[in-house]
Amino acid sequence: MDATTLATFRQNLYVTFTRAADALFEVADALLTAPQPRSFVELSQAPGMQRRWPSCYAALADGRIDRMALRRLFARHLPRPAPGARLVLALDTSPIHRPEAATVADRTLVYAPNTPPGATPVLPGWACSTLVALPDPVSSWTYVLDNRRVPSTETATTVGTEQLTALLALLPARPVLVADGHYGTAAWVAATAALPCDQLLRAKRTAVLYRPAPPRTGKRGAPKKDGARFQGSDPATHGTPDARWQGTDARGQAVTVACWANLHLKACRDVPITAVRITRAGAAGTKRDPHEAWFWWRGAAPPPPETLPPLYARRFGIEHGYKLDKQALLWDAPRVRTPAQFARWTDLVAAAHNQLVLARPLAEIARRPWDARYRAASPQQVRRAMGRIIAQVGTPVRPPRPRGKAPGRPPGAVVRRAPRHPVRCKARPRAA
């Protein structure tokens, strides 16, 4: 297989590191070649790592990355979809928990899964907004396009809007974005109304939409701005759907899709929305897997109803990508002190993740005895072959220059206590 694409990506990636480039690049390579590291400093024991373990944290503290150039690089090497298929993006946030790190700045309360019943599912930490290209079929082979921390002064909606706006200018075709219920709000719809991107958003059953306003009556007074009310949880407001499809899913269970077009929100009346109801007979009927789910389609004319259930199901690829980043690529492992250091580490993890995607055609998978033979190669299996692949494509890193041992802290020096930072609580936005 031709390794030119991966070699070009690596050369351009090195250029985006504007300070401490060699150390940053070596840490990224160690992330790809270290055999099952359990902690961040264990990356210094990777076969190709020439620097010692203090250089791992020093690279994050002293390094600098041109994030605009990095975003352009990721977009330029984005794997193209199959002929006739559309590019499907996903946007979501993921928490990085730091409950005991009192010296870490700008922590907020972020979501914490698997908490005991009755406990508030939040912990102090950081939230990161991730924009990825989704694979088909669903798997952890996502391609990271941008990953940014959500500061305490912003929300996932404002950060996600900035990410999507910056990326769309770099894409050759109009994509479709799938996102969960966090983005099925009036604030998100209004913020992204002008963007050239179709969207399939999870929505609440209780969300209220409105039909077009009736014609003017000629009577005195202001005309009506909204028509009849539409609410998913109130069947009396539905009326006859504009499109309907009934069939079966991959497991042979009945699926029904109904669509109501030309609806809008009060907060943004000029943005048309198509409400979509997907009913699955094979669902568990729980909060995570309900029989009935509601979605909003926003953008150009909606696709055929039968394509909407598998389209939204592809969103779960981003969850598998998060699992790969945190469990295999140690995204939440380093105990850095500043948000800027964590941002650099996040960029290195995204670069390593994307190199696995680009190296997928080059990897000769050596399956372990317990690996399934009939399944396609996973990112972890490709990662086992990265040592040979990197040796083939080469590295731009220069050898380190030993400088001897540091003199250490002089006698009598005052040891300053690191400043403590409170956890910042964001104001809850009003429901639309």
Task: Please outline the helices and strands.
Elements: H1 4-16, E1 17-19, H2 21-33, H3 54-62, E2 64-65, H4 67-76, E3 88-97, E4 108-111, E5 122-133, E6 143-150, H5 156-168, E7 176-179, H6 186-191, E8 198-203, E9 208-210, E10 229-231, E11 243-248, E12 254-265, E13 268-280, E14 292-298, H7 308-313, H8 317-328, H9 339-359, H10 379-384, H11 386-393
Parallel strand pairs: 3-7, 7-8
Antiparallel strand pairs: 1-2, 3-5, 4-5, 5-6, 8-14, 9-10, 11-12, 12-13, 13-14
Helix pairs in contact: 1-4, 1-9, 2-3, 2-9
If you had to describe this structure to a student in words, what would you say it looks like?
There is one protein chain. The protein has 432 residues and is of the alpha+beta class. The protein is 27% helix and 22% strand. The chain is built from eleven helices and 14 strands. The chain has helices at 4-16, 21-33, 54-62, 67-76, 156-168, 186-191, 308-313, 317-328, 339-359, 379-384, 386-393; strands spanning 17-19, 64-65, 88-97, 108-111, 122-133, 143-150, 176-179, 198-203, 208-210, 229-231, 243-248, 254-265, 268-280, 292-298. Strands 3, 4, 5, 6, 7, 8, 11, 12, 13 and 14 form a ten-stranded mixed β-sheet that branches. Helix 1 packs antiparallel against helix 4 (67-76) and helix 1 packs antiparallel against helix 9 (339-359). The relative contact order is 0.16. The model has no long low-confidence stretch (mean pLDDT 91).
